[in-house]
Every structure is written in structure tokens, then in C-alpha cells.
Design goal:
With about 240 residues, the chain is mainly α. The protein folds into 2 domains: about 1-30; about 35-245, Biosynthetic peptidoglycan transglycosylase-like (Penicillin binding protein transpeptidase fold, Orthogonal Bundle). It is built from 11 helices and 3 strands. A 3-stranded mixed beta sheet has the order 1-3-2, covered by helices on one side. The longest helix is centred in the first third of the chain and has 31 residues, at about 1-30. The radius of gyration is 20 Å and the shape is globular. The mean pLDDT is about 90.
Length: about 240
């Protein structure tokens, strides 16, 4: 019994120190990314490996970082209108949307998510695809770290640069160049709303050949952009950034 107790204590200490080490490492990486631009993401790497194992030799990753000042405010507003209208106000989780999603899914309709922009950044930057309690737990912890360490403008900037808009197409600069033959700074409201309309599933919904459902979603996003007050809504994101240490 004494040997077993000693072994359990050693295992417990090892697990504790391992957890602390991982937490410090995660904090260090998240802090560094407040100022350093990510050269890639876990999602990009996973997609590249998936294509490699599937023998998709034509797969290519298109990813070009641009600072937030080089991105059209219409594109920034469009992703907020489409994905997370409470983005300037929440601390990483939109509990009202979560409750609504739970009721929606319990009613037996199509599964409806409630991930905020902050959660999507955490997932795409650091984690793997799929659904599990372990991944959701890690996502929640990373989301809190991101919200604590980064101002809202930085979260939005990274999201706009790493979101997938098509097969192998990451970020608004790559999407603007591929689909519209222009830079991200020149995206207008219609372009931006169309890009945001495919975000729920860019492998299924296509910018270059939008279905009627995508076009209807684009029009809804455009109306939401107007209802939010246009690009002046982004001042709320700037206000949070000014308050952030």
C-alpha cells in the first residue's frame, strides 16, 4: 500500500508539473503572438497533411499576411456581422448565442454553432479539427488567454488573416486576390459580404460559384452590416483596444 501511495504521489506531481509547464508554454506563445504574426496555423498544417495523405497533389496553401490597416473596413465589419455581432463586448464567449444554439439544436434542427471570433482564432491557430470534450476544453482555455493577452483589434486582425475562404485559401488578402483580383484594402461591401457568407463551411460554400443559399446569406450579412451602423461600428472594437493594457 505504501509503495502504491508513493507511486500515486509521484504520478500526481508529474501531472501537476506537466500541466503547469504546458500552461506556461501556452501563455508564452499567446503573449508572443500579440506582436508576432503567425507564419502558419494548426488548421493550415492539418489541411496540408490531409491533402498529402489523400494524394491531392494539386493542393496549395495561399496565405499572405496583411496588417489590419491594409484590410478594408468593410471586410472587418462583414465578418463581425456574419460571425459574432457581440465581438466588441464579450470576454471570449457569447453566452446568449450559446443558449440560443442549445435550444435550436435541441429542437432537432440543423446543428447550429455559437463560436465567437475569439474561439475560432484559438481553434484555428492551435488546435485540431473535430469535436471532443478535450478539444473544447483546450479551446476554452486558449480563448480566455487570447482575450486576456490581446486587444480586440489584434484578435480581429489575426482572424481576418487566418480564416479559410476556400480550399487552401487563408485570409482576406489571399481571398481578395484569388476571387476578385484585388488587394484586401479594396474590397467593397458586396465582396466582403460574399466572403463572409462562405465562412460557416468554405469547403461546401463557394465564393466563385455561390449557390442561392450563399447569395441569400450574403444579402442578409449586407443588411446586418447596415443595421450595425456601417463601419462606424468598428469604433467599438477600437474603444476596447484603447482600454486594453
Amino acid at each position: 500500500m505504501a509503495k502504491r501511495a508513493g507511486l500515486l504521489r509521484r504520478i500526481g506531481r508529474f501531472a501537476l508539473w506537466t500541466s503547469l509547464g504546458l500552461a506556461v508554454a501556452a501563455l508564452s506563445v499567446v503573449l508572443a503572438l500579440r506582436w508576432l504574426n503567425p507564419p502558419t496555423t494548426a488548421f493550415m498544417l492539418g489541411s496540408r497533411l490531409g491533402a498529402l495523405f489523400a494524394g491531392e497533389h494539386d493542393y496549395a496553401t495561399r496565405y499572405q499576411w496583411v496588417d489590419l490597416e491594409q484590410i478594408s473596413p468593410q471586410a472587418a465589419l462583414a465578418v463581425i456581422a456574419a460571425e459574432d455581432q457581440q465581438f466588441p463586448f464579450h470576454g471570449g464567449f457569447d453566452f446568449k448565442s450559446i443558449r440560443e444554439a442549445v435550444r435550436h439544436n435541441a429542437a432537432g434542427r440543423h446543428v447550429h454553432g455559437a463560436s465567437t471570433i475569439s474561439q475560432q482564432v484559438a481553434k484555428n491557430l492551435f488546435l485540431w479539427s473535430g469535436r471532443s470534450y478535450v478539444r473544447k476544453g483546450l479551446e476554452a482555455g486558449l480563448t480566455l488567454l487570447i482575450e486576456w493577452c490581446w486587444p480586440k483589434e489584434r484578435i480581429l486582425e489575426i482572424y481576418l488573416n487566418i480564416a479559410e475562404f476556400g480550399r487552401g485559401i487563408y485570409g482576406v488578402q489571399a481571398a481578395a486576390a484569388h476571387f476578385f483580383h484585388k488587394d484586401a484594402r479594396h474590397l467593397n461591401r458586396a465582396d466582403s459580404a460574399l466572403l463572409a457568407a462562405v465562412l460557416p463551411n468554405p469547403r461546401r460554400y463557394r465564393v466563385e460559384a455561390p449557390s442561392r443559399a450563399v447569395l441569400a446569406h450574403r444579402d442578409w450579412i449586407a443588411r446586418q452590416m447596415a443595421d450595425l451602423g456601417g463601419t462606424s461600428y468598428l469604433e467599438r472594437v477600437e474603444a476596447d483596444t484603447d482600454r486594453h493594457p
